[in-house]
Each structure stands twice: as C-alpha cells, then as structure tokens.
Amino acid sequence: MIALQFANVKREPFEIGRPPTNSLLRNPQLDTIKHLMKDLNILITGGLGYLGGRIADSLKKNFPETTITLGTRRKTRDIPNWAESFKIIHFDICDSTSIEKAVIGSDIVIHLAALNEYESINDIEAAWKTNALGTQALLSSADRKGVQRFVYFSTFHVYGDCRGTITENSPAQPHHPYAATHRAAEDMVRFYQYYKNMDTLIFRLSNGFGYPMDTGIDRWALVFNDLCRQTVTSGKMVLKSSGKQHRDFISLHNVSAAVEHFLFKIQGQWKDGLYNLGGDESLSIAEAAKTIARVYKKKHNKTIPIEINDKKENGPCDPVCFNIDKLKATGFQLTGDKEMEIEQTLSLCENFNT
Fold first, then answer.
1. Helix axes 223-234, 338-349, angle to 10 degrees
2. Would strands 282-284 and 246-251 be described as parallel, antiparallel, or unpaired?
3. pLDDT of res. 163
4. What is the DSSP letter of 207?
5. What is the distance between the alpha carbons of residues 6 and 196, in angstroms, rounded to a whole number?
6. Quick one: pLDDT at residue 6?
C-alpha cells in the first residue's frame, strides 16, 4: 500500500452567523451578519428535483439574503413557475465543462443530482458514471474553485439488510447499484474531507415524504406520493404488498430543516460529517395508507377504501430502528407536520384530474 502524503492545513470554517431573529434585531452586529449572508452563494445540484426543490424553497424563505443557484438537466422551457425567482443553470454531472461552470463562485454545494433506484438498476454503468464518478468530478472541481462546504445526500440503503438498531457505526453492506454507487461516492466525499481539508457533510437519508414543488417531478412511485395520487385520482388506495412492511419516514420539511441547521446554526461543528437522517418513527405501509385516508376524510368528509392485493408477507415486517441520536446530539429537533405534508400532496394531486 502506498501512503499518500498531503499538507494538513485546515481551512478556517466560513462563519455566516445565525439567521435573523428578534434578538438579533437588537444586536449591533446584525448589519455584518446580514452582509455575510447576502454574499453567500449556494449551488444545489438536482435543484429542480424532489429533494432539491423543497430544500431550495425552504432556504429562500428562511434565508432570503443568500443567493441560490439550481443546477438541472431540465430544458429552459420546462422550468416550473415556482423556480422563476432562482438562478437556473444547465447542469450535467457527467460533463466536466458543465460542472466547472456551475461551481464558479459557489461557497456551498448541496449535491443531489443522481440516478434514482429504478434508473440505477436499469443502467448500472450509467449509475456508476453519474452517482459515483460524477460526484468525484464535482468534488474535484469544487476543491479547485475553493468551495468551502460540501453537503452530500446519500441513502440509508448503504446499510443493505442490516437488522436491529441502525447507527452510523453499523456496517455498510450495499447490494443494489443505487446503494453501492452512493457508498462509493461517500468514500470520495470523505477523501476530500480528510486529505483536501474540505468541510463535508454526508446525510444517509431514509424515506423522505412530502409534497414535491410541482407535478413534473418524477417521484410519484414513492409510497406516500403514490398513495396520495391514488386517493385523488381513483378514490381508493391499492397496496401492492401485504402492507405490513415497515419504513422509517421523514418529512421533507425536516430534511430541509436539517440542511439549514448544519449550514446556519452549527457551521464549523460538523465533527466527522456523517449522519443518519430519518424521522425517528417506524410506520408500516398500511399505517401510512390509513394516515392518508384520515387526512383526506378530515378535509373532504369522504372515506377512502384501502385494498390489499397481496396479503402474503413480503420480507421482514418488524419495526425499523433507524437511529438518529447522533443527529439529535447536535441540537437538531424534528418539527415537521406529517398531516400538513399529506394535505399539500393531496392538493397537488388534484392537478392530475384536470
């Protein structure tokens, strides 16, 4: 094994202060804080996607002084109305020129551009080029351009079939191209943290749920989204499994809040930079369906029937214990409103009936 030698000169973390609050309004240093926030440039790759859109929207609402750029593969004519107030750039994670242009002037990169689980299994080579090698190319460019902080969204699937309580110390045993490529990307992120002195953060995300920013976001196969769409378009929900399988679900509100927590509240205190990001709650698919039916009935006074096509047990049905104690130890608290997310998703699904 060849030992790699690098100068161990740590960059000073970029301090931007806290978000404005009533107490800060009386703080004589407020003008300096707002000035620093105004000069902060954030690039979100996959910025018009399911997670990217919600994170961008939350950042703009809570930290309007920042400049947020959304990198996307969408054509200009396909830019949704909600994104018109953002700077939009064409971004191709597999094209070095595109990457170089995107990172210029960025202080922070939030990297979400990746093939999803279905795309990854259907084209394994493309999954490696996009999810793994693409992330490495983005990190390399970010390092050359002086990007100060890099946030990478990985997946809880890197743990494979891990049983019992899953912590950040649980062994990574990916057996799917989606998980394996994200695990490989994680290693590159940690390389740039340890040997290139970049402040990096890896979130191993469980099952995010909540309304997308527009119906053009192709994530309607996700459990909550699929069941909400069925409810509105069919007047019933059909489960394709026994419904007994458990998942850890986290609202997209909480996903966005976690990003803001690390960027604005505990900047410079990311420790090893690896955190499970989940909802601290295990729900069965059937329980998720019942929750959606309850929210719909509250609003429309109509009962939604739930049909189970496959009553056989498909895989383990024990509750999932996706531990986020390490995340909570940083001071982060889950505050998302599950019913609000469901109600907003149901409302968005009305567009499918027009």
1. 50
2. antiparallel
3. 84
4. E
5. 8
6. 36
CA distance 114 to 205: 14
Pairing of strands 41-45, 246-251: unpaired
**Token pair listed for 111:** 């990297």
Give the closest residue to 155 by CA, choosing from 103, 120, 125.
120
Residue 116: both structure tokens together: 């999803």
DSSP category for residue 64: T
- Asked if the 35-211+249-277 domain carries CATH number 3.20.20.140, the reply is no
Residue 223 confidence (pLDDT): 95
DSSP 8-state secondary structure symbol assigned to residue 102: H
Q: Which residues on adjacent β-strands are paired with residue 41? A: 67
For residues 18 and 33, give the distance between their C-alpha atoms in angstroms, rounded to a whole number. 8
- Kindly list the distances between the CA atom of residue 215 and the CA atoms of 45, 61, 145, 223, 250, in Å, as whole numbers in the listed order: 19, 21, 35, 16, 20
CA atoms of 175 and 249, how far apart (whole Å): 21
Half-sphere exposure (CA, 13 Å, Cβ side) for 345?
34
Separation of alpha carbons 138 and 230, rounded Å: 38
Q: Strands 207-209 and 282-284: what pairing?
A: unpaired
DSSP string covering 273-317: -EEEE--S-EEEHHHHHHHHHHHHHHHH-----EEES--S--S--
- Of 107, 270, 273, 263, whose CA–CA distance to 187 is shortest? 273
Backbone angles phi, psi at 284, to 5 degrees: -80, 160
C-alpha span between 262 and 259 (Å, rounded): 5
Question: Could you tell me the pTM of the whole model?
Answer: 0.88
Q: Is 29 helix (H, G, I), strand (E, B) or coil?
A: coil
Residue 112 is given by DSSP the state -
**Per-residue model confidence as pLDDT tens digits over 52-95:** 999 999 999 999 999 999 999 988 778 999 999 999 999 999 99
What is d(CA 80, CA 74) in angstroms, rounded to the nearest whole number?
10
Distance CA 150, CA 138 (A): 10
Which residue type occupies 177?
P
Residues of the chain with pLDDT under 70: 1-38, 311-316
